[in-house]
Amino acid sequence: MLKALTLAVILLASAANAGAQTRPATSSPVLAVGPQYDTTHVYVAPEDFDRFVTSFVATFGGSLSKQGVITVTPTPSSTMSQLVFTPVGTLSVFGFKTPVPYPFGVERTGYLVKDLDAAVRAARASGADVIVEPFNDPFGRDAVVQWPGGVNMQLYWHTTAPSYATLQTIPENRVYVSLGRAEAFIRSFLLFSGGSVVGDDAKAPGVEIGRPTDAYRRVRITSTFGNVAVLVTDGHLPYPYGRELTGYETSDLDATLAKAKLAGVRVLVEPYSTDERRSAFVQFPGGYIAEIHATVRK
What we know:
The strands form two sheets. Strands 1, 2, 3, 4, 5, 6, 7, 8 and 9 form a nine-stranded mixed sheet that branches. Strands 11-12-13-10-14-17-16-15 form an eight-stranded mixed sheet, covered by helices on one side.
């Protein structure tokens, strides 16, 4: 009887642990609005502002919001500001006329959330540091968080809920992290986003990070916030790898690059192929670097 009781306790404990391991996080369905509201933050000099937004729309199609000069930080500052809407992703573009207050300028994305205070609490509970506490801006409220590995993201909420068109393809937030902090970042972001790992390749082709004779670890995450590619490296990265914030998926890479060149965009890395995609790296007027790819159909 004692042996049977002991076995029953072990089985119950194992079932409880398995449930804890497989139970999905509950943050994302409550907090996330949709990937079309996740904006890459692009900082350019004011004199390059119009050339940049024009070239981006010429490359991918889309439209621009009304341009303005506003304060988007909790301390005094002034910046040109404009949204760029394209079928492959949304940008928030800033051209500061004053020095950029710390720590702004190094946050990679803005994630629209339904409740900013709840999102900040969830980020803290997931292991993130809140490096800019919530503050008011002309459209709502914002905060900046830092995930393990030093990855900065802005969370924002609008007083009047925005309405953006659904994207044709979901952009890829490309996050480079060190070998020592990768697991902590992945664990924290999954807990916050309620997302799931859809790919974990310990021997991804090194050509993707400019090292064709090597391999590296690539983890892909998807959630209602969008897609994240976690690129785990030793930091030995040739230029321009690691400088891009976002990867954009297009149906025809060559046609997109042709449009980009006509718009004054430089191709930094010519197209290369892996098992999953054809990719290239480009630099837009003003300095913004992006990865562009097309899925390889098998």
